[in-house]
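Entry for the shared binder. Reason: the reviewer on the internal report wants the predicted structure included alongside the sequence.
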Amino acid sequence: MTVTLFHTDGCHLCEEVEAILRRLAGRFRFDLVRVDITGDEAAYARYRTAIPVVWIDGEEAARYPVDEATLARLLAARGGR
């Protein structure tokens, strides 16, 4: 499973969600991919006012605000272990 975090450097909300994902990596198997939207024109146009955004296996799963329980539920629903 691949989890993608769309973020910008220095975004404290993004850092909070990344910390949650790193904790959840101990319970669920997934590869975490970080995409800085300032370096991706399409992602910036889509998410500039919405970050952090989490995708699971190529599909948008959550936008801030999102908590650990919600992300855990989403990962479990995708078959995460």
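Summary line for the report: The chain has three helices and four strands.
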